[in-house]
Amino acid sequence: FNYGGGRAVVCSLCFAEAPARSTTPAVADATARATASVVKSKGAGGVENMGVSAGPVITNPNVKWAQRKDRLLLTVECQECREPKLGIDNDRADGFGIFTLSGEGRRGGEPCTYDLRLELHGELNKSESKVSVSDRKIVLVLLKSTAGSHWPRLLHAKGKTPPNIKVDWDLYMDEDEEEEEAQKKSFDIGDLDDFSKFDDPLDKDVHTDSDDSDAEDLPDLIH
After folding, report:
1. Which of 66, 103, 158, 159 fits a disulfide with 5 by CB distance 3.0 to 4.6 angstroms?
2. C-alpha radius of gyration, the chain, whole number
3. Exposed (0-12), middle (13-18) or buried (19+): which is 184, by Cβ within 10 Å?
4. Can you tell me the distance from the alpha carbon of 1 to that of 13, in angstroms, rounded to the nearest whole number?
5. Which of 200, 188, 209, 198 is nearest to 82 (CA)?
């Protein structure tokens, strides 16, 4: 099975009630060890998975963000998360977008599992968003469902912003600056505005720019 973008194989455990029978201490001990080796976690999509532990679960990696009238620019810091499972969805009932990222990687040189879920202020255009994966970070251009005024905040929930989410001042631009740039016909946000350098997150063939990348295909997005 697939666990957070990586692959793990564990033995199947049957929890169905079986007819009463005697169990030797050796069998009971082996069963206890097998059961203890399996951990239960809740994935980014809210689905409970069974898998082998790959270190601590990191639900709050550092996220930097900026925006334009028609898009969000996100940078998620996650080391060596080469096969992330990315999800872009919308909650139509309450009118907000949902971005999820999960996958096995490293943090501080130790193995870990990344499991990020962001409920965004507004809805997203799932078909046009782009992603680029490297050894240290994942950069995304998420198009808003409709262009318009800047969002007052990144997240749907009001209140204090979590400490792991910060404004990307290198890419920050307010509405007046954006309009001025558009009027000059020189609107340019560098590499992030060149979609040819990004991959379609709905496409399996997402590239990585790591020098030691084996160019393996990424799994499908969560829908």
Report:
1. 103
2. 21
3. exposed
4. 14
5. 209
